[in-house]
Amino acid sequence: MTLTIPIRLTALTFDLDDTLWANRPVMERAEEEHYAWLDGEIGHAASFPLEEYTRRRMTLGLEHPLRRGDFTWLRHEAMKTMLRDFGHDDHEASHWSQVAIERFLVLRHELNPFPEASGILEELASHFRLGAITNGNVDLTRLALDHHFEFSIAAGEWLAPKPDARPFLAAMARLGSVPSTTLHVGDSWKEDALPAARLGMQVAWIDVKGLGAPGPLPAGVHVLSHVRELPALLIRLTGQALSS
């Protein structure tokens, strides 16, 4: 019989997209609707369809590797250049790219967290300090879940997107914790599980697609299928009940 030795945890860090909500439908809707809105204003899509805008963003990310995770910047710059090519002067191109991105961000924040998410976070916040680390451009302060967290780090805007270690280290510094007392929760094997494990953090890897790890599980990595399984994992790891 294998005995599990309880560990001391004081803080949790969370990824956001696809960890606390399903992000793909949100992004697909935001992408299509903001682009259709802009086309209704200036009629550019026949000359520059959405696929061309996507291609330009990807190219720009390759040309500016330090900004590859700063998605709002990539959107603005790619859109502005494209609208210049469509015939707008610098002022018009900058104006329309800005209002289009503002429209996109409104739609991007019209999301529904998993039904269990708020209750889980409320319970956990009474036992641990909570922070968020995201590679996306969601602004947590625009969401109802914000009050559960002490802060949110937009790693791409820091020019240090995960798997860079810096946002994890910054989060732990803010939380007053160290790797051995911190657990990271996220859905990406490459951007969440591996970098956190390399730092010596405990990891709740949410294997959303159910594909399994591409290699042996590093020490401290625990596989979940949904964030709803997190409280049970924490009880098992710490040996303590979470209820107040």
Q: What is the CA-based Rg, rounded? A: 20 Å
Mean pLDDT: 95
Measured between the Cα atoms of the first and last residue, the distance is 31 Å
Order of helices and strands: EHHHHHEEHEHEEH
Helix content: 40-55%
- What global shape is seen? elongated
* Biggest beta sheet summary: 6 strands, parallel
DSSP strand content: 5-15%
Short description:
This protein is α/β, with parallel strands linked by helices. It is built from eight helices and six strands; from the N terminus they run E-H-H-H-H-H-E-E-H-E-H-E-E-H.
Explain this structure to me?
With 244 residues, the protein is α/β, with parallel strands linked by helices. It has eight helices and six strands. It has helices spanning 24-42, 50-63, 71-86, 90-108, 117-125, 166-175, 189-198, 230-238, and strands at residues 11-14, 129-134, 152-154, 182-186, 202-206, 221-224. It has a six-stranded parallel β-sheet with strand order 3-2-1-4-5-6, with helices on both faces. α1 runs antiparallel to α4 (90-108), α2 packs across α3 and α3 packs across α4. The protein starts with 10 loop residues before the first strand and ends in a 6-residue tail after the last helix. The mean pLDDT is 95.
